[in-house]
## 1
Amino acid sequence: MTEIVGNQETVNQKLWGGRFSQSTDKLVEKFNASIDVDKRLYESDIEGSIAHLKMMAKQGIIPQDEAVTLIAGLGKVKQKIENNEITFSASLEDIHMHIEDALGKVTGDVARKLHTGRSRNDQVALDVRIYLKKETRIIIDLLTGFQKALVKMAQNHLDVIMPGYTHLQRAQPILFSHHLMAYYEMFKRDIERFQECLKRIDVMPLGAAALAGTTYPLDREFTKEVLLFSKVSDNSIDSVSDRDFVMEFISHAAICMIHFSRLSEELILWSSSEFSFITISDSFTTGSSIMPQKKNPDVAELVRGKTGRVVGNLVAILTVMKSLPLAYNKDMQEDKEPLFDTVDTLKICTDVYTRMFENIQIHKDQMYAACKQGFLNATDLADYLVSKGMAFRQAHAVAGQAVSYALNQGKELNDMALEEFKTLSELIDQDVYAFIAIDKTIARRISYGGTGFDNVKTAVGKAAGELGV
């Protein structure tokens, strides 16, 4: 044993320590360790190790009885971790070395055979894929649950009319249910993206070893079947250096969080006294420490804020990977913090929004009243003139003149007398009032995908059928 002066200690026997004559500096040991982050991979690591042992026994790489002993030992290690009976230490670096060390204490020297035919490089790639497969499926289920909340709200408010906005200015009347279904479509695309991403997560890399494969007669197809992967990775170098699936997952998560953030912004506006379109339940709001009247939409604000974290995580993982040569590099240890944070953030945001939506009160009359101000039926006045034979460009100009006139008179279009309309065009007659009525403007939006009553009812029904609600 070699004694080292200063900030180093006696050489310790790390799993990789055979080549080294000096022990790791304690600060480097702390800096190098990832156990504080990757310990949550313990279940995936043990699952992968059990499959690896079954394959090695089948191939005669290790005796069957030793595989049985090690598999039973891994079960005990799992229990110890879950019972908080294992102390995590930076000296053992990561979850892989902790599990192997704990296994040695349970089974003895035979535990040293566990790492035969593999490297931590393919091992960690496997662990992350096992973990992310499970979490992606959970997220898909959570997003589907939120879609159900959206559709149920749409079903319960099919006749509610609200202002539609462009540039955050009142534009045209729309159905509130139609607005909700726009978000249904967004989250439907999110689910589709995660489902596609699953195909690229669902690749089994174990057997690539450090980067070049191994001399042992591994049956990678067998390991794949045990672990329920869809395919085996084709190139050993790519197997250990690929984090595309992590970047892709976080990218999809960032887009999904953007959708939640956009919805958050609208809920925050709608719940303000300036809009008063909705009331969010007290269970999902907070108060002020100084202003007793306040009721703050903190859930929506936090979701909007947490979007920045997920977008930041995407930038982080892209930056980590952007200049890495093949194959594995220690930089890639930095993939887990943004990944884990993204998974946790998206899951809780989706879950809390689903529960919050069940407790939102819709103010139908307030929404409808808002449609009566701001000339939301100006386009319909132009359409009315077109129905009388006027070219649309000319009709648009006449409708604009009508708006200008009404503004100067402090009126809405519906308040103008027929004589006032006729000063703008003799084509306008008494039937104009029925034509530009709010309900009628909704009913006439008959183009596929539009806000017409029948269109939206059909769309909501189709979505309900897809979701089983």
## 2
Amino acid sequence: MNNQEPKPEREGLNILYVEDKPTNQKVFALMFESRGCNVDFADNGQEGVEMAEKKRYDVIFMDLKMPVMDGITAAKIINEKDDHPPPIIALTAYYDGIDRSEVIANGIVDIIHKPFSFQDILNKVVYWVQEK
């Protein structure tokens, strides 16, 4: 079995990370920008929707609990407005009270629970972006 870390194969992969905590944004940026990806950040779901309307992203990572607009609502709007939306992957620290079927029904393709490893994120990028 190959133990090498999967990696984004395309240079310049465009990623949107919708997250209200600056520390989490910095960690995420370090993980992906050092691997040649372009990462944009939105501080809440409303900003995420606006950014997704202006720029084409290869993948969107979305926190579920945020001020102004939550991630489920933002994902639903992005999916309604885009004929070919990018995969939206939820990142959440909340285990209880998450109805996976509701999350998926609103256009989120997968969920990663915090704390997550970079390996978790890379596996999702490889699966949802590069293998599709």
